[in-house]
């Protein structure tokens, strides 16, 4: 069950109006923000409080997280010179606060800790667009217009992602998740050519660590078999694709994570229960289903719904099927 | 081939900074804006210059189109009282400029004229969100939280859409397109329950007119069979789903429209040609493929690319296969 504490009043109180990237540099706050949801609900795992832009900010990319908008760059990266300015990530020197927070957390936690990273394509889309996008027009313009530059960018990001994930694994996380949130904007041919090699390299880069890796995207129903081949032990899918269909495409030798629509939690309990039971029914008795939302918890989500949902899932998965 | 003239300098000159809804009330300008792309390219059809918010503005909904953002309402509709304030559309009284522009156009045009409307769900999403959205959180909150209100809203919108389309058909358009652009945000169950009945009613409402109706959405690969059952003679699909797969799902007894990614046109010609040829190859020799972009033309698209694309498609479809 994925949790971002922004729906909790105690989260908003602790965070205040500080940029999230600044908060991520304060290990004691990261520990507290990671623990907050667990004090509210008996979750099966904790997710490291962080942001996909953390490793990029750590190497000096001038990115900030604007409230209500997301990652924002005043000077997006759109040419060879911009890509050349990206340097490699040395986690010990550049982001020691990440490892420190993880070491503190694993001492305190009684459940596994999940670390994460943005995937090369999704990180690149923010760097190129300068913010969130619906069309990914500039990302694709660079991809088609200067494929060598685009591939260099994804290659550089893949190196950064591997270093970022290895540092988290080294510090003690028990699983990692790779967020390729926006890769569903691509067609299969472009995924194969422009994304697959770099995502595959990320999974190869952490392959020796023997820790489960989750590969996540939104609106990726048309890419699931390719994403599976790129790598990962478990696959996060959103509500658009029925869980059983998605699992059949991925193959039952891999695990699946999902896929309740987070927006359902903004309504009354009835539809939440109905749709959660539908997800569980589609997962069936098979081992390897991680019940989760299809995407992040939305800001106005009632905490009581989440608590009730956790209880519902626990009381319906006693046989270890999910 | 869908065309919105915003990529043309002569379009930007004529439009100036006037709200698009105001421009839509000036039949002479609508005629000119509709004809502009045809003067540049030998297109097979003309698309009426309009906006999906036209019929809602015509009944007094205080909506404006913000440049770079889209339809914007300062007071979104989120409760029964808001829905109750929506009145029916009387095209003759409320939007005579629409029919007038169409009558002027069909006299001038040598190719068919395509009219259009937003679909009930997509219109509702703008009314409820107050603007564009990535999560459709408030739309879904109303849908799950007050399903009766939501269904009344979609019912009222279906009536408005039918009136708007019938007026266009009466004035002489040769085909109509129903844009359910954002319905891909829903899962299959919700589509079936909340959208299907109202969309089906729209197609039933215009069924007597014997004019082809196109049913369009973005990211609807998981809904295509349901959308087909809701109605339409042709189905618009975007680049996410391979055209041959989409057509097989819809069935070859219906026509298909698509599906070049408009973002490809922002790069060099090579990938445009390659992807356009791939679309044509996937359509094969079968009758009933309308070559089109998967979504609207993006603002910075080079006109020369569009011209070359039209020529490419024409020179490769002599056998009437597409």
Key descriptive features of the protein:
alpha/beta; 15 helices; homodimer; 7-stranded parallel sheet; 322 residues; two-stranded antiparallel sheet
Describe this structure in words.
The mean pLDDT of chain A is 95. In chain A, the strands form two sheets. In chain A, strands 1-4-5-6-7-8-9 form a seven-stranded parallel sheet. Chain A is globular and about 55 Å long. Chain A is α/β, with parallel strands linked by helices and 322 residues long. In chain A, a hairpin with a 3-residue loop joins strand 2 (63-66) and strand 3 (70-73). The longest helix of chain A has 25 residues, at 147-171. Helix content of chain A is 49%, strand content 12%. Chains A and B meet through helix 9 and helix 14 of A and helix 9 and helix 14 of B.
Question: What percentage of amino acids of chain A are in beta strands?
Answer: 5-15%
Task: Please give the oligomerization state of what you see.
Answer: homodimer
End-to-end C-alpha gap of chain A: 11 Å
Strand order of the largest sheet of chain A: 1-4-5-6-7-8-9
Poorly predicted regions of chain A: none
Task: Give, in order, the helices and strands of chain A.
Answer: HHHEHEEHHHEHHHEHEHEHEHEH
- Structural classification of chain A: alpha/beta
* Proportion of residues in helical segments of chain A: 40-55%
Tally of separate helices of chain A: 15
Computed Rg of chain A: 19 Å
Count the E strands of chain A: 9
Q: Give the integer mean of the pLDDT values of chain A.
A: 95
């Amino acid at each position: 069950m994925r949790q971002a504490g922004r729906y909790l009043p105690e989260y908003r109180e602790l965070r205040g109006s500080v940029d999230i990237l600044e908060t991520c540099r304060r290990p004691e706050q990261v520990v507290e923000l990671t623990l907050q949801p667990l004090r509210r609900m008996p979750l099966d795992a904790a997710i490291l409080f962080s942001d996909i832009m953390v490793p990029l900010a750590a190497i000096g990319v001038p990115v900030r997280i604007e409230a209500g908008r997301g990652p924002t760059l005043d000077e997006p990266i759109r040419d060879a010179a911009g890509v050349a300015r990206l340097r490699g990530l040395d986690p010990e020197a550049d982001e020691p606060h990440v490892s420190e927070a993880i070491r503190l957390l694993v001492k305190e936690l009684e459940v596994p800790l999940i670390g994460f990273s943005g995937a090369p394509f999704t990180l690149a889309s923010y760097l190129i667009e300068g913010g969130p996008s619906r069309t990914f027009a500039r990302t694709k313009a660079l991809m088609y217009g200067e494929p060598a530059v685009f591939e260099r960018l994804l290659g550089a990001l893949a190196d950064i992602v591997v270093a970022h994930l290895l540092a988290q694994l080294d510090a003690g996380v028990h699983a990692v998740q790779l967020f390729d949130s926006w890769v569903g904007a691509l067609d299969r041919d472009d995924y194969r050519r422009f994304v697959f090699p770099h995502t595959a390299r990320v999974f190869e880069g952490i392959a020796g660590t023997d820790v489960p890796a989750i590969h996540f995207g939104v609106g990726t129903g048309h890419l699931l078999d390719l994403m599976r081949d790129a790598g990962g032990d478990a696959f996060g899918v959103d509500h658009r694709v029925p869980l059983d269909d998605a699992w059949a495409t991925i193959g039952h030798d891999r695990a699946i994570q999902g896929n309740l629509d987070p927006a359902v939690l903004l309504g009354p309990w009835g539809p939440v229960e109905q749709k959660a039971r539908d997800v569980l029914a589609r997962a069936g008795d098979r081992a390897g289903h991680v019940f989760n939302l299809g995407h992040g918890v939305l800001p106005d989500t009632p905490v009581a719904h989440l608590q009730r949902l956790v209880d519902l899932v626990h009381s319906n998965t006693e046989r270890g099927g999910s």
